[in-house]
Amino acid sequence: xxxxxxxxxxxxxxxxxxxxxxxxxxxxxxxxxxxxxxxxxxxxxxxxxxxxxxxxxxxxxxxxxxxxxxxxxxxxxxxxxxxxxxxxxxxxxxxxxxxxxxxxxxxxxxxxxxxxxxxxxxxxxxxxxxxxxxxxxxxxxxxxxxxxxxxxxxxxxxxxxxxxxxxxxxxxxxxxxxxxxxxxxxxxxxxxxxxxxxxxxxxxxxxxxxxxxxxxxxxxxxxxxxxxxxxxxxxxxxxxxxxxxxxxxxxxxxxxxxxxxxxxxxxxxxxxxxxxxxxx
Length: 280
Known about the structure:
By secondary structure, this protein is mostly helical. It has a domain at about 65-235: MetI-like fold (Orthogonal Bundle). The protein is built from 14 helices and no strands. Helix 4 crosses helix 8 (about 155-165). The longest helix has about 35 residues, at about 245-280. The chain is globular and about 70 Å long. The two termini are about 30 Å apart.
């Protein structure tokens, strides 16, 4: 009986801790959504509140009344984030496939080179990248925010580490014997096996691309090409008064796609964790 009591007592403590951590995780989003319905005066007087107000339509008018259009920024961010995520996950998985499946002399050196690139901060290369983009007259092009995502050393490392135990080389050899082409094997055999890893990295890549502010600020000067984070940052640049309600509304619009992407891909992450535990 005492062992059962101790067991249930531990489960209760763990449950309480998990609930507490879940509340802490959800609280910032809840406050942000509530503040998007409040006025600037209310937010300045009481920054933290869980009671919604009735200023949502007024904040929406302020947000839509700016010189830029949030809907345009939303679409630009969506195009950049989806395209960058798709390219990054596909080509990183393809690179990992080449490192795991093929035997070639420079394989280890190539992987070491990828690891070395991971150590270089992106800000260091940004000046040279901007000069190159300016010389080829590609500023104010969303493609310059998308194409560099193809080279993602950290994602290649993650995909390689996941693929090594997950992908059986015997399956690849059997497919080759049956006459399957290499891209057919990769697209129809390797990619489905890598779904949990791809979903995990897709979330990180989408969030990173969606929240990116430094590169778009440097490369984009045309308001029609602005992404949503740029527009939200400009809301705080009002000379006379910062409308915090509109700022929180803009942040809410920025966060909603991230929540949707996580909810859509979370089942694959859970499936990957379960698969890993079964293998272990």
